[in-house]
Amino acid sequence: AKKPAGIPEAEPKPVNKVGIIGAGLMASQLAQLFIYRLGVPVVMKDVKQELVDKGCAHVRNEFRKMVEKGRLSDGKASYLSGLLKGTPDYADFADCDFVIEAVFEQMEIKKQVFAEAEAAIRPDAILASNTSSLSVTRMASDLKHPERVIGFHFFNPVAVLPLVEIIKTQKSDEVTLATAFDLAKKLRKTGILVKDSPAFLVNRILTRMLVDCLALVDEGAGFRHVDDALLALGLPMAPFELLSLVGLPVALHVMETLSRAFGAERFPVNENFKRVVAAKKGGIYIREGKSSRVDPEVEQMWV
Ligand code: 3HC
């Protein structure tokens, strides 16, 4: 069958072992997905053993939840959990075919982990980034083999949302691109090719909406009011709930990237939101069982 436009004819590389840099929320979700869909060993690396342990516990817990829902047998869940190895160093990446980073959204940190990973992996292994908004081309600019770098951007919750943005850098080669599309398919995701432009495709659009939701609150609309309106419109999730799911600092980071790239008029960085992110952890709402209320701290900080 003819391949859809944008997917090269090159033969994809096999992916029999995966490395993940980072063990936070996104990294753990990626580890779970790669193990569950590919059934291959996954190594998850973070700077401290306690972070690694936390990430691994999260993955095991997700498999346990699948057992409780009757989606996995006990035996299969133990087997899948056994495919995960946590580590604080890069040595286990030596035989990985595909390594993806999901660390803090800072260019210098991303460049550093890419350089460290490149020193540990085979020259033909693929190096991917799950960045939300940063230039993947820049991230790869100091590497020896930038041709095997690709952006591979997932959406939260990774287990549920079918999209993965595939970001071709100025130097990504055809085999890398073909492998990324093949991998997306094997993970049962919809891979779409996007340009290496700030925040790519989806986050640019989502942020456009979030920026105006924040402006509406500045203008006196309540958080709940805005959320209820857009939920009633049929969005799968209310915007301020979505902000909490994504993580307020990540959302702010994407806003700042877009503001720098396209100007503050088009993408203003909301001052109230900035203050909230600087001052507190958590989201806009406080959960109380099945219901929730706006965090009074957030309301107080909003002027
Ligand atoms: N992990 C695993 N599974 C999850 C999950 C999670 N975190 N959250 C929900 N699910 C599963 C549930 O178990 C359930 O599965 P089941 O029906 O098979 O039992 C299914 O998803 C539906 O969940 P619920 O019935 O609890 O709730 P909803 O139907 O309201 O769906 C939702 C929840 C999937 C989160 C939905 O509200 C949604 O799609 N929200 C929008 C999310 C979104 O837009 N994300 C993108 C954010 S941007 C981003 O991530 C990019 C980054 O760079 C910033």
TrEMBL record:
Domain 3-hydroxyacyl-CoA dehydrogenase C-terminal: 200-281
Residues in 3-hydroxyacyl-CoA dehydrogenase NAD binding domain copies: 17-196
Family, similarity comment: In the central section; belongs to the 3-hydroxyacyl-CoA dehydrogenase family.
Descriptive protein name: 3-hydroxyacyl-CoA dehydrogenase
Biological source species: Desulforhabdus amnigena
